[in-house]
Write a structure and sequence with these properties.
CATH class: Mainly Beta
Order of helices and strands: HEEEEEEEEEE
Largest sheet: 5 strands, mixed
CATH architecture: Sandwich
Strand order of the largest sheet: 1-8-5-2-3
Shape: globular
Structural class: mainly beta
Radius of gyration: 15 Å
Number of domains: 1
Distance between the termini: 56 Å
């Protein structure tokens, strides 16, 4: 019997399916609508975290050491905001050898690829309450472990 190699997309689908089945992540959509497009501002940045920003470090340990925190079954980090808040991230790729991706389910599905050593600001208003997956949207060596969570509460 020949060994089989799974494609990156297949691995991602399997991991997300497992997370959905275990209740670790839930898919939320606005008013039952299957699509939503947030106004997202993206700009180049440094890795310095200004006040009011969440700092996400992408490297061979995942997002903010998500591998050590049990990702993908335990997404890390977990970002909590309130509906109506402006959400501001600095995403910094400190890996010097490969790009990593950053995307947010529903809010920023297109995501972006962050080249080695680069950083970006990502800003948007959290208008929809729910729990949303933050994930790497490009294939990299730790792709399956780059799972975080955004929780938007309506209280």
């Amino acid at each position: 019997m020949k060994p089989r190699i799974l494609a990156a997309g297949t691995v991602t689908i399997v991991v997300v399916a497992l997370l959905l089945m275990t209740g670790v992540i839930q898919i939320s959509t606005p008013g039952g609508s299957p699509s939503y497009e947030a106004v997202v501002s993206v700009s180049k940045s440094s890795c310095a975290r200004p006040a009011g920003f969440f700092l996400i470090i992408a490297d061979l340990s995942g997002f903010n050491d998500s591998i050590a925190h049990g990702a993908p079954l335990s997404p890390w980090p977990v970002v909590h905001v309130h509906q109506g808040d402006y959400v501001r991230f600095i995403v910094c790729n400190v890996d010097q050898t490969q790009a990593h991706g950053f995307a947010i389910q529903t809010y920023f599905d297109a995501g972006l690829a962050i080249p080695p050593g680069d950083a970006f600001r990502i800003e948007f208003r959290a208008t929809i309450p729910g729990t949303f997956v933050i994930y790497c949207n490009i294939f990299c060596t730790v792709h399956a472990f780059m799972i975080a969570r955004l929780t938007v509460s309506n209280a």
